[in-house]
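Good morning,

Attaching, inline, the C-alpha cells for the sequence recovery test we're adding to the shared suite. The designed sequence is right after.
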C-alpha cells in the first residue's frame, strides 16, 4: 500500500493496440486503450493514479501510483498485433503493514498489538506465552491482532519480547512491565 506497482504486457514486435481491463473489489470496470498509430490513450472509469505506459523500446505497461486497498483485483492486458492477440492477466494483492504497539496493561502484563494489517500479522512471544491472539476484522479487509503475554510456567520474567511476522516485514519489540 502506498507504493507504485508496474504490470507489464508480453512484448510483441509490432503492436497496434494495448487494452487493459481492470476489475477491482471496489468500483466498476476500468478500461484503458492505447493505440500506437495515434499515440493516444482512451480511459473509461479509471482512477487518476493509473496510467498506461507505452514506449517502443519497452514492453507496454500499466503503472499504478500510490496503490490503495481498493485497487486490489484483476488486471488483464491484451496486445493486438499483426501476429494476433495476446492476453496476460494479473491478480494484484495489496499488502498493508500493521501498525505496531507494545504496552503494559493494568495488571502489569505486556500487550502486543499489530493494528490494521493485511493479511493479519502473526504474534509470538519470547519467552513462550500461553496466551491466544485475538483478531478483529474490518470491512476494508484489514485485521488487528492483539496478544496479552501470559507466562506458561510459574517463574515470572521481567522482560518480554513480541515477535511480529507479516509478509510486509518482521519486527521484534521488548518491554518490561
Amino acid at each position: 500500500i502506498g507504493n507504485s506497482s508496474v504490470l507489464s504486457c508480453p512484448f510483441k514486435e509490432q503492436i497496434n493496440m494495448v487494452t487493459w481491463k481492470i476489475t477491482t473489489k471496489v468500483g466498476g470496470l476500468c478500461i484503458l486503450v492505447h493505440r500506437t498509430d495515434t499515440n493516444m490513450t482512451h480511459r473509461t472509469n479509471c482512477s487518476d493514479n493509473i496510467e498506461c505506459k507505452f514506449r517502443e523500446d519497452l514492453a507496454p505497461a500499466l503503472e499504478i501510483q500510490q496503490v490503495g486497498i481498493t485497487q486490489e483485483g484483476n488486471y488483464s492486458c491484451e496486445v493486438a498485433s499483426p501476429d494476433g492477440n495476446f492476453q496476460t492477466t494479473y491478480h494484484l494483492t495489496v499488502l498493508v503493514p500493521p501498525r505496531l504497539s507494545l504496552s503494559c496493561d493494568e495488571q502489569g502484563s505486556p500487550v502486543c498489538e499489530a493494528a490494521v494489517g493485511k493479511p493479519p500479522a502473526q504474534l509470538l512471544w519470547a519467552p513462550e506465552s500461553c496466551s491466544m491472539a485475538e483478531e478483529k476484522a474490518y470491512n476494508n479487509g484489514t485485521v488487528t491482532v492483539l496478544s496479552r503475554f501470559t507466562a506458561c510456567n510459574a517463574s515470572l520474567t521481567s522482560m518480554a519480547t513480541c515477535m511480529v511476522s507479516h509478509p510486509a516485514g518482521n519486527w521484534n519489540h521488548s518491554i518490561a512491565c
